[in-house]
Amino acid sequence: MKNLRKYREIWLLAAIAVLIGLISTRFPGFADPANLRQVFNDTSILMILALGQMVVILTRSIDLSMASNLCFTGMVVAMLNAAHPAIPIPVLIVIALLVGLVLGAINGLLVWRLNIPSIVVTLGTLTIYRGATFVVSGGAWVNADQMSPDFINFQRAAFLGLPVLSWIALLVIALFFVVMTRTQIGRSIYAIGVNPTASVYAGIDVGRTKFIVFCISGMIGGLAGYLWISRYVIASVEVANGYELNIIAACVIGGISIAGGIGSVGGAVLGALFLGIISNALPVINISPFWQMAISGSAIILAVVLNARGERRQGRIILRKAEAA
Amino acid sequence: AYAENVKIALVVKSLGNGFFDAANKGAEEAAKELGDVEVIYTGPTKATAEAQIEVINSLIAQKVNAIAVSANDADALVPVLKKAMERGITVISWDSGVAKEGRQLHLNPSDTGLIGETIIKLAADYLPEGGDVAILSASSTATNQNAWIEAAKKVLPEKFPKIKLVATVYGDDDSAKSTDEAKGLLKSYPNLKAIIAPTTVGVVAAAQVVTDANLIGKVNVTGLALPSEFKKFIDNGASQAVALWNPIDLGYSAIYLAHDLAVKKEEAKPGATLSIGRVGKVTLDDTNSAAMAPPFQFDKTNIEKFSKIY
Amino acid sequence: MTDAPHPRHIPDRLDKPLSSAIFSWEALLVVIAVLIFTVNSFASPYFLDPWSLSDLTFNFTEKALIALAMALLIISGEIDLSVAAIVALASTMMGIAVQAGAGTPVLVAIGIVVGLGCGAFNGLLVTRLGLPSIVVTIGTMSLFRGIAFIILGDQAYKGYPESFAFFGQGYVWWVFSFELSLFLVAALIYWFVLHRTSFGRRVFAIGNNPVACQFSGVRVDRIKFILFCLTGLMSGIASVLITSRLGSTRPSIAQGYELEAITMVVLGGVSILGGAGSILGVVLAAFIMGLVTFGLGLLNVPGIVMSIFIGLLLIIVIALPIVWRRLREGSFA
Amino acid sequence: MDTTAQHKVETERPLSGPAQPATPRLTLSGISKSFPGVRALHNVSLSLYPGQVTALIGENGAGKSTLVKIMTGIYQPDAGEISIDGEATTLHSAHAAFGHGITAIHQETVLFDDLSVAENIFLGHAPRTRFGTIDWRTMRKNAREVLETMRAGHIDADARLKDLGIANKHLVAVARAMSIDARIVIMDEPTAALSMKEIEELFLLIEFLKSEGKAVLFISHKFDEIYRIADRYTVFRDGEMVGEGLLKDAGQNEIVRMMVGRNVDHIFPQREPKIGAPVLSVSGLSHPTEFDDIGFELRKGEILGFYGLVGAGRSEVMQAISGITRTSRGTITLDGKPIAPKSAADSIEAGIVYVPEERGKQGVVIGMPIFQNVSLPSLMHTSKSGVLRLAEEFALARSYTERLDLRASSLSQDVGTLSGGNQQKVVIAKWLATAPKVIILDEPTKGIDIGSKAAVHGFMAELVAQGLSVIMVSSELPEILGMSDRVVVMREGRIAAVHDNKGLDAETLVRTAAGIAA
Ligand SMILES: Nc1ncnc2c1ncn2[C@@H]1O[C@H](COP(=O)(O)OP(=O)(O)OP(=O)(O)O)[C@@H](O)[C@H]1O
Ligand SMILES: Nc1ncnc2c1ncn2[C@@H]1O[C@H](COP(=O)(O)OP(=O)(O)OP(=O)(O)O)[C@@H](O)[C@H]1O
Ligand SMILES: [Mg+2]
Ligand SMILES: [Mg+2]
């Protein structure tokens, strides 16, 4: 069992390889490195978001407001860019991170200080943040024409053969990997998910850690906001509507346990890739787009069934221990 | 004769869409001309029938005089609009129509067949040798888009025999989904010469995808686009030309017609001719529908000018 | 010698201070409802009209019917995010039946049976395979609606029989629509089941500690399965109503209803963690949400701005008792 | 695995330091703590001395665990002062207590199932690399070292905690305490889940801690343990401190009097067993992984003891008989009729009830009032065609809880606010209320104070006198010897022996349980 858990990422990788193989039989070019690079780039935003959601889910919480945060922050930076095209992009990214941080911190404070379950808090802020987007924009869209060329092209610039967007994703993945495996806060996040009571006893400030986790997911939402808007070159109130569930689905497929404490950076990334490949492949292999929803739904159910299999406790096996002794 | 203003609600598919904001400009213009009209510009934020019904319910409660609606669903709005008519409210539809029994008249932005032909022609004009084209539509349930695509398919064999329509995909008027679908088209059809997007959201997404993929000059993006949103892609060459009717005129006419029916008690019946201020006159066909001007084409020569207007 | 231990008398219940009744959740909701009602009637001259008020109920009755069953499900510690997708699938199946010439009774039966079937499917996955319901229903949410899309594609079904229109558009008496009457009756039944029967008691117990319940001879899986079926059933009924009200079916019908139904349940004071809540609270919450959206609608406030109010209301109403208690104890951290 | 090795060095060291060391390491004075409606602690004091073990004694609900939580920074006292090495401090968080070298093994095991052993030991104070990141390699090495010094080297530092047995988990908890170089070690009923062998190991460890000069607080309801290991005692009653001193100066009776406020002589009830025909017979009962070929008979009016080391599989067998876990083979006959319960509901209906040992997880429904807990398995009797009848529920709850001398302010109180022992009484009341034929009690007096223990034992005697049959699973020898008519001994998932309890001695039982030939 230890093995299955240890190699969950490898299983997922194998599933992805099989998926790519299957797609290639119908569309030979799919497995080309160039195409795969593009699929990776197309999935970058989802991967980043899934990582942000992962840290929240690991603490037995959930952030339903990520997509709304993305929408709000994206609108804010798009409007800033439209009004002041001279603001350099790195500054805009910092602003996006900060705006996202504020929204995440609001979630975090409510969870931490008032002890309201995160699903309730973020169900509320899900609608509030999207509504706030309408309020700040007056309902108007910001379209490609209003955005500066830098704003649009920053993430598209190629650097060592990969677009900047892909590099940002790789950077975020590396950052999360280090934080989750090598730092006190990363381990505390796991500990809280595994056993909150024990965490209190171990001297971890559970409330504050949850606050931090929501700040992280908020910043990720903000970053994704800029990336999303500059990628799809339109900022509107409807941006990424309902996308929160895709993010959670990526986490679930990646083996992150909704009950907290179990999951890895690799899993979240692969889960996002899996969904990314499906949405990338369906149009090219001529499966009617109407099938897409049912297919990803089935994939989620399948993934959770398989993960549960791997997680299932095998009893204490008194007899076998007795024989071994 | 009216002590207070005539309240006419301009109900749109969704708020924030530049096309409808432009239509509202026209509506306000009409209101000013008519003098006694108060326009209530409203609609849901999410383009669904249910949300539109809630909006219409509150308009009924406010006892507005007329409702002019661009419908998210031709059939689902019928019951609530019938209720409105029963309570003495004038109901017309414009842009995206409601089934006949749910409104007194429908104002088409243009002739459906003409739009279908135009979107193909926009692609064909720049493909003298012919070639593969694909359509990127809005949501699969959008009535008007579906009608145009039908019409386009009908004219293809006789009028544009060299153009081959290889696929029709749906971007749901969602920029992310439209982008994915446009990308998929480029991948699956390496010989694709043009993407036709009869939707203002999809056409921008497709043009951006073509720009990103460095296919400017190889794949032409065309369809229905709002000049102010699309200027960039005419400028950079991702698109040679697009078309659209004038949303300002559309909103203007909708208010005029609603006002005529509500106040002047004009009767909407087949064959009737109604005048709509500066736009002229329309004649109702046997489904009580009227069509406005043919779509107007934008290209390098005139986009600058129109992008300042709508 | 062992002194005989005197059995101490334990009273049934301690007299509760009046303040605890005044500060109960339902009381808070009543106050809020009255407040909103008053504000609305001042803000718009059109509000206090029986027909307006009747129209207002159409904004929430379908979701509220789902919320009744959802309340029980959430109290038992589970959740169903697929309800809106069930509505869509059931509506699609009714559409197919209409195409085949089915009459009203058959249509209603199909809507209900499909809803029940979808609920049972969720229930089986959750109870048989022991999967977390939030994840299962995120999956079935895509699956059910996905099937509706596969069947319908870009089509719509219409041509429902005249008599079918009664469910979503008809009135039972004066301004009392069929939808509203059905909701009130259903609320009464759910109230009785949850608060007055042993089944309801077990639902609460399961939400608090499913393992101890299993050891105590409560058939936990069976009850959870029934609750999923009930939620499916109510979604099926809601599907009949909404299909009848719209007179047509599209695969994108009822989008986003799941979150609104859950918001109603949570606003009604049901603990999202399970184990606590009341039907009265849910009913009040449904009316409050209806009043807010309708009141703002009369002022032509866009729906998305209304949703800010709902979101704020949700957080404030839940935070209020906590803040109040902390302030009183002076222990605001 | 060699866990039974003796460790001469430690045991040969002189026990305990000077009789009255100069300064206490930790002093609590005037501590009070109330929860809504409950005064848990009122003006209590306690001192812990380096190199000494202080036993904290008190009935269930006396406030012992509450005090532990105050000492570890989890709860804040309403009033009172804490000083460490003579210096007043506040312990505003668990982290702060940690910083002062205070560490606790809590009443409930509180560790991280899904993390590795090494991480469980070092979570929160892991060694760092020079970049400030966690140094996993050093952490593993240090973990192995700590485990070595505790003579627990057989525990793999890389193993997931959930793959360890309960005793090893306890050792990990202790290792965690050792790893921070704690100066004050608190153990809240650490022996409740341990077998005799493991208790011995734990005692060696406590001796080791003493020799290292740590101050130890030891909480237990078992007097033999207290007298063996502790130097000093402090007694609480109803949240107040009623006595303290050196154990060698105080007799058990004296302490019990302080604790209960009256005399209690725990003599097992004298019974005249009237054993009848077999009621329950089990044969060939097997489970794929947990137990094999279990067969025994339970007769009317009999108390059948089940003895074994912790982890022998007794609980699993009982859960199988009551339909909670599935078996692969075997038959169960009740009153001559074969039954095959598929759930606890089936077995309760048939007349077999199982009172589980894990009170918090399997027994009480926290968040619900006492009376609803008691009536939960009997709802079909207290309701009429599914409709609840509250008056009957209250009557049922009252009759059983009062007989067990439950301490509660009202029957509508949330069970979660009761002390551990009182919760256990609710649990027992709950299953008795179903009026069963056969009642299986799994560790019925685990965590129960001496007065209530007598009540439970008396009650068991009463039950069998009325013609019920009782299976009592227990790891406590005196209880097994004092109460059972016959004793089944289990070892490693199989029945090792069945003894008649006439002239049965502890030694024989322990030997069969451990598999050591006489
Ligand atoms: N979180 C809480 N909320 C309310 N009351 C509590 C809480 N924790 C403890 N109590 C009450 O405080 C009193 C002391 O409980 P505590 O757990 O300290 O007892 P204890 O001495 O450890 O008993 P036991 O031997 O049964 O473990 C009890 O009356 C208990 O009901
Ligand atoms: N590996 C383990 N992980 C967690 N808890 C365990 C483990 N082994 C035993 N326990 C716990 O220790 C306690 C006693 O052990 P358990 O019930 O498994 O042994 P048993 O032989 O079946 O029963 P008994 O202790 O009554 O003999 C229970 O609370 C059980 O949950
Ligand atoms: Mg205790
Ligand atoms: Mg046991």
UniProtKB/TrEMBL annotation, chain A:
Q: Which residue windows are transmembrane per the record?
A: 41-59, 66-83, 89-112, 119-142, 154-178, 185-204, 210-233, 245-278, 290-308
Q: Which domain of life is it from?
A: Bacteria
What is the annotated localization of this protein? Cell membrane
Write the record's keywords in alphabetical order, separated by commas: Cell membrane, Membrane, Transmembrane, Transmembrane helix
Predominant place of localization: membrane
InterPro entries named in the record = ABC_transp_permease
Membrane-related topology note: Multi-pass membrane protein
Q: Which Pfam families match?
A: BPD_transp_2 (PF02653)
Could you tell me what this protein is called?
Answer: ABC transporter permease
The organism encoding this protein is Mesorhizobium abyssinicae
TrEMBL record, chain C:
UniProt key word Cell inner membrane: yes
Give the superkingdom in one word. Bacteria
Where do the TM regions start and end? 21-44, 64-90, 102-125, 131-152, 172-193, 225-243, 264-292, 304-324
* Membrane association type: Multi-pass membrane protein
Q: Where in the cell is it found?
A: Cell membrane
Does the entry feature the keyword Membrane, yes or no?
yes
A Pfam family of the record is BPD_transp_2
What CDD domains has UniProt attached to this entry?
TM_PBP1_transp_AraH_like
Report the InterPro entries cross-referenced here. ABC_transp_permease
* Keywords linked to the UniProt accession: Cell inner membrane, Cell membrane, Membrane, Transmembrane, Transmembrane helix, Transport
Assembly state and interactors? The complex is composed of two ATP-binding proteins (LsrA), two transmembrane proteins (LsrC and LsrD) and a solute-binding protein (LsrB).
Role summary: Part of the ABC transporter complex LsrABCD involved in autoinducer 2 (AI-2) import. Probably responsible for the translocation of the substrate across the membrane.
Protein name per its UniProtKB record: Autoinducer 2 import system permease protein LsrD
TrEMBL record, chain D:
Outline the extent of the ABC transporter domain.
Answer: 26-263, 275-517
> So what family is this one in?
Belongs to the ABC transporter superfamily.
Identify the Gene3D superfamilies for this entry.
P-loop containing nucleotide triphosphate hydrolases (3.40.50.300)
Per the record, which residues fall in region Disordered? 1-23
PROSITE patterns in UniProt: ABC_TRANSPORTER_1, ABC_TRANSPORTER_2
Q: What is this protein called?
A: Sugar ABC transporter ATP-binding protein
Question: What GO annotations for molecular function exist for this entry?
Answer: ATP binding
Keywords, A to Z, come to:
ATP-binding, Cell membrane, Membrane, Nucleotide-binding, Repeat, Sugar transport, Translocase, Transport
Q: Which InterPro entries match?
A: AAA+_ATPase, ABC_carbohydrate_import_ATPase, ABC_transporter-like_ATP-bd, ABC_transporter-like_CS, P-loop_NTPase
Source superkingdom: Bacteria
Which portions of the chain have biased composition (kind: Basic and acidic residues)? 1-13
